[in-house]
Specification:
Family: Belongs to the MurCDEF family.
Largest sheet: 10 strands, mixed
Strand content: 15-25%
Pfam families: Mur_ligase, Mur_ligase_C, Mur_ligase_M
Helix content: 25-40%
Catalytic activity: UDP-N-acetyl-alpha-D-muramate + L-alanine + ATP = UDP-N-acetyl-alpha-D-muramoyl-L-alanine + ADP + phosphate + H(+)
Number of helices: 15
Low-confidence stretches: none
Strand order of the largest sheet: 8-7-9-6-10-11-12-13-14-15
Distance between the termini: 47 Å
Structural class: alpha/beta
Radius of gyration: 22 Å
Organism: Agromyces bauzanensis
Function: Cell wall formation.
Length: 467
């Protein structure tokens, strides 16, 4: 069983020397960076080295590779853990034996945020991009926010920073309910597409968590006018100030005239005026994300035209349709998409810029429960939006394997099996992808596990096949 946040856990007034177990993840590394900036001594551990860990070491963090009780030094005052850890983790167990405060990463972040004007971005999809757009917009507007995002913001080269302004912007995680721990001033709900039902148990409980999150916002709520789950949540809100965004005719911020031929362009209607923008990133869904970010900024009182201009400067985040290389006319991209709706959006965006080339999806299913629940939906979107698909085996993350649940559950549900292959061996998968690739094709790896690690193998296979 993995570690779950305890919403009633007491957070010490002084956290002292802080040890992060699983420090290399995008969320944990960002929080650790803020603790370093706040003057704390930071130690930590993770299963493998990474660019995030190298960056933290350069800032003064002391990090061990591999989880071992010996990593927990005698002078550690507080331990921070991620929900991806198992309860038998030796550092976690030793911290409990010593009686040290053990905080979920969201609780550690809540301690840093205390007393700040917090903007929290939640939703099943679009959180990282929307958060990055808001941060980019605020910086362009002259604000200097602190922030923690779930991915590296390309133009900033970081996922977290301490600013001098009053605003603190965070990507809030709904997967385990930890977004309810924050003292939120402004809540943005991008969508409420069913996910994480392994934690919540039912769609009703999942949607109720979003109702609670939004209603607790001290200033206002920005929520999608189009997503069916968000509409159900909005209908149940008791908040006095709710702003909606999307393509609906009655949206507070209405987006229209969306053009997706290359980087997406669109128009926004707000309070009787029209504003237009062209983003630096492709995809119809990013026009909607921009509308949500715009709603937050104008809701905070910033000028509409300047807000949209600032948002348009956003150049993307790491692992969101990120180009890693081109070999013999074949481009290799990586994307974090791990839910059918996200996969559809990522591949639809790729379709707008691939031209006459084809799309070859390399899909790594994430979680046994999600694969079991959504195998049919994954197959449908992959078959619809990709020309060829390679399915890898399941990345279990925090879950134990389930008998009979493999990547084959997805491939077996394709209507036309000639355009899909389930290949569990990564080198064989890379070689197969290289053999079927043609000039002008996009290869897009998809998943929030470690599928990005296959990219060098894909590039190597392409070099051998096309060199």
């Amino acid at each position: 069983m993995t570690i779950k946040p305890d919403p009633n856990a007491e957070i010490p007034a002084e956290l002292g020397n802080v040890h992060f177990v699983g420090i290399g993840g995008s969320g944990m590394s960002g929080i650790a960076r803020l603790f370093l900036g706040d003057g704390h001594r930071v130690t930590g551990s993770d299963v493998r080295d990474s660019d995030n860990i190298a960056a933290l070491r350069a800032l003064g963090a002391e990090i061990a590779i591999g989880h071992d009780a010996a990593n927990l030094r005698d002078d550690v005052d507080t331990v921070v853990v991620t929900g991806a850890l198992w309860q038998d983790n030796p550092e976690y167990r030793l911290a409990l034996e010593r009686g040290l405060p053990v905080l979920h990463r969201s609780q550690a972040l809540a301690a840093l945020i205390a007393g700040r004007r917090l903007v929290s971005i939640a939703g099943a999809h679009g959180k990282t991009t929307s958060t990055g757009m808001i941060i980019t917009g605020l910086l362009a507007l002259g604000a200097d926010p602190s922030f923690v995002n779930g991915g590296v913001i390309e133009e900033l080269g970081t996922s977290a920073a301490s600013g001098r302004g009053e605003l603190f912007v965070v990507e809030a995680d709904e997967s385990d309910g930890s977004f309810l721990l924050y003292d939120t001033s402004v809540a943005l709900v991008t969508n409420v597409d069913p996910d994480h039902l392994d934690h919540y148990g039912s769609l009703e409980a999942f949607e109720q968590a979003f109702v609670d999150f939004a209603d607790r916002a001290r200033e206002f709520v920005a929520i999608s006018s189009d997503d069916s789950g968000a509409k159900r949540v909005a209908a149940r809100l008791s908040h006095q100030r709710v702003m909606t965004f999307g393509e609906a005719a009655d949206a507070t911020v209405r987006v229209h005239d969306i053009e997706t031929d290359g980087p997406v362009s669109f128009a926004i209607d707000f309070e009787g005026a029209e504003y237009r923008a062209t983003l630096r990133i492709p995809g119809r869904h990013n026009a909607i994300n921009a509308a949500g970010a715009f709603t937050v900024l104008v809701g905070l009182g910033f000028d509409p035209a300047a807000s949209l201009d600032g948002i348009a400067r956003f150049a993307g985040t790491g692992r969101r349709f990120e180009l890693h290389g081109t070999v013999g006319g074949v481009s290799v991209y990586d994307d974090y998409a791990h839910h059918p709706t996200e996969v559809a959006a990522a591949l639809a965006a790729a379709r707008t810029v691939v031209g006459d080339g084809r799309i070859i999806a390399v899909h790594q299913p994430h979680l046994y429960s999600r694969t079991r629940l959504f195998a049919k939906e994954f197959a449908e979107v992959l078959e619809r939006y990709a020309d060829e698909t390679v399915v890898l085996d399941v990345y279990g993350a925090r879950e134990d394997p389930e008998p009979g649940v493999t990547g084959a559950l997805v491939s077996e549900r394709f209507a036309d099996p000639s355009h899909v292959a389930f290949i569990s061996d990564w080198q064989q998968a890379a070689d197969h992808t290289a053999r079927i690739a043609r000039d002008g094709d996009f290869v897009v790896t998809l998943g929030c596990g470690d599928v990005y690690r296959i990219v060098p193998q894909l590039i190597g296979s392409l070099e051998r096949e096309r060199g």
